[in-house]
Design a protein that fits this description.
globular, Rossmann fold, 2 domains, 15 helices, alpha/beta
Amino acid sequence: MHILFLSDNFPPEVNAPASRTHEHCRQWVAAGHQVTVITCAPNFPKGRVFEGYRNALWQSETIDGIRVIRVWSYITANEGFARRVLDYVSYMVTATLASLGVRQVDVVVGTSPQFFTAVAAWMVGGLKRRPWIFELRDLWPESIKAVGAMKQSLAIEWLEKLELFLYRRAARIVSVTHSFRRTLMSRGIDGAKIEVITNGVDIGRFSPRPKDAALERELGFEGRFVAGYIGTHGMAHALETLLQAAQRLQQQPGGDAFRLLFLGDGARKADLQAQAAAMGLRNVVFVDTVPKDEVARYWSLLDASIIHLRRTELFTTVIPSKLFECMGMGIPVLHGVAGESAEIVQREQVGRVFEPENVDQLVDGLHALRDDATLRESYRANGLTAAQRYDRGALAVGMLKVLQAAASPACGA
């Protein structure tokens, strides 16, 4: 079977969509299938093309047996709604055109969060007369409203109509959460064509390891309890809550025993750094995005991982992918996200849940984990056990079955 996958994020970018797409496609190639990915020049999240690449009209390379075609797009940093939409639309156009040169395709996949990629997949599926799959990673445009980037308007209403159109036209929808599936069904989408394939962890890459001593010395973490946030610093994440917790710790007796690590980039990072400086925080360390192969070194430093999203109803339906990486590394979680993901944390007993944007509860959780080594060890052991149930390899096999079922009239799978 030949799978054509459209995604505007792909390695060497290290965000969740890039990692999931790469790891699934790599597994499909290993299973004997042909995979072509059409993506952009790597530039997320700073809006600058990575060294060694160009924002050219068309480039091709092979990564882990995957044919990767990179097309031109309007590149901008992950900030400013109008510019980002121009980025998305430009990719939609050039990806659709590039797909015309990809022959003998059996199934087309388009992945969100933004669904102009799904529009491209719908058009490509129509042009090639092949079924197309909508991989649903985010309820866009609802998430735009949730973070305050846009209010209800004629533009949002048009996007919502386009959203429903795409759901109805897709041969299958692969949702990353059960909550998304329930939401779509409540809006009239046939539940029989919606499959749930959650995010997971590449347990070959994210596995327990001792603290990286050299990195620990370099960052001044020796002898400290280190909690960290690793991921995008965006509008959705409300990381000001973590800075307020750091300030509270710094003001308490013995507060110097704590360090908070922020690793990553995003639209809010510069503001967060300025805010931390204005607050006089000595217990916070910011690190820019590092290559994918280096991320696990930073995970190793953490005694606890903080996962956090803004307090809004929409985010009760999401499951941050970093939760599974924490499980794979055996890192206890302080989980500031309500809903389905909090249920996983509690069911698997891999950490402590706190109310989003609640500084008091976050500080209490940091103290509880620092003061109780037995509790930390329990969360660690439970995480390693749970990670086996979210192995990305097994999840890739599950999604492959969905693609084969959709493509069977075309390829005889």
